[in-house]
Amino acid sequence: MSAIKTEWLSNVKGDILAGIVVALALIPEAIAFSIIAGVDPMVGLYASFCIAVITAFIGGRPGMISAATGAMALLMVPLVKEHGVQYLLAATILTGVIQMVFGVCKVAKLMKFIPRAVMIGFVNALAILIFMAQVPHFVGISISTYLFVIATLIIVYVLPRFFKAVPAPLIAIIALTAVAIWGKVDIGTVGELGAITQALPSFLIPHVPFSWETLQIIFPYSISLAIVGLVESLLTASIVDDMTATESNKNREARGQGIANCITGFFGGMAGCAMIGQSVINVKSGGRGRLSTLVAGIFLMFLILVLGGLVVQIPMPVLAGIMIMVAIGTFDWSSFSYVRKAPKSDVIVMLTTVVVVVITDNLSIGVIVGVVLSAIFFAAKISRIHVEHDSINEADESINQDVVYRVKGQLFFASVEGFVDAFDYEVTNAKIVLDFTDAHIWDDSGVGAVDKAIIKFRAGGNDVLVRGLNDSSERMIHQLAVYRDPNAGLKSH
Amino acid sequence: MYSHLLLAADGSSNATRAAIAAANLISAMPECRVEVLYVIDPAKVKDEVLHAQNHEEIEYNRRQKLMPVQEELEKRHITYHITMINGEPGSAIVEYADQHEVDLIVIGSRGLNTLREFVLGSVSHNVVKRAHCPVMIIK
Known about the structure:
By secondary structure, chain A is of the alpha/beta class. Helix content of chain A is about 65%, strand content about 5%.
């Protein structure tokens, strides 16, 4: 009970003010992301309202803002184009179900397996895709289109230096929409791309046939949306954790995202997730508790009910300018020094993630390819095994002498080949020592490789001594090795 | 002379310069309590989280940034302690100084020209303008 009180009421004034600021900043983004997805602005606005309100109650990270996002919108494009918005709503519900299952399975723990190189690639690819989605809205249309984009960029970057109370993107929208209306500028508007309904969202069941075929269509999209939504949400939660020096429940967040998307789909909204940029705005504006997220959602809906009619008049290039700002803010600019300084394999993983996403237009494929690639790099790195060799008398190898091989590294299925080939089996009648002080034997293949090497040495009449095994390696050898049987031959392998 | 000195540090070379100057000053007032303050700037948190695998690594990277400052103080055998707080650097430093009865703030200046200061904003100017105690800016 006291936890509920702290999460909701410990920062009432700050939360309400920050929530209002976030709502103002959310409107342009919710509209722009709807346009990216190819649906009416209402789909993104309803989504932002529902998701914000629901996650306020059941999310795992107080103070984090979830709504319609660019990452999710980009994934929906082909679905909307080929099958229409009803399938998108069905996919949104299924996304929620998948995320709830993930949450119950404590999938947040898996996040630690996503290397930072993949996360850096993810945000960079996201920034590039958001930018590219804007290009058709301002390139080669008209001079006035370019002027509106430039004016927007100047307002959003310069104005916050002097005036911070109202988010600059909203000021750009209001000022430039006014200019377009009164100046009678001939320019593309939001209204040409979709309609605004000044009504609260209502419950509806998506108009799709309940069939196996429908599931086949929406499932690939839902699984992508579920993965990307959780990746971005959990990254955002970590950022908010760090900014506020508090901790949060990641599994509860995953479940909360799932419930939010599920309900949103039934209320005509598109799938969403946590937003890095808006959450940072919230915390910077003083938002800390659940109340800030709730206020953001409710105030957003209120504004649309009151001012919805004006939204259709917003010039498209102004939204494009705001999205360019979002893309610039999303991109990780320290990537340039990262590419120079980070280990080569990390850089390759990061760039591969970006390239795969840009080619496939699918962030989830990029994440999966990135994770697999870095796992391969990791396996390759850890499977490098070194065998150092010091012999007491290099010159004369034919007589009985001590040869010591020091094995360094991890001996398992991927490293056995390098291990067996590392020895010189030409030696005969020598006393050979295999020193495993700096090695660890992990599996049957490892034990088999030790057997193989020893039996090969014995074939040359050498005497082999194994030493320095750590306890768990010793146990493996004890249970599995055949070399302890003096009659063992290579045939047994 | 002063009883509680606050040395603002952000891991830049300006902060190291400030540490050298502060160390000279502190040597002359052995009774003074020395606090190194690192402000976690919300604008940089995204980068820091993105470039670290987990929370421990983020903290480690921040501690790493303070190493040059610590070295300068340790060279002069100065006892100090480190505090990390969240907030916009300028206002967070001032607020912290007010709350903890700091009587001298030492801070490095990036030496930005007029244009860059207009775009980026100057933390040290901000602190000078709003602090309620003496501020020493190290150029």
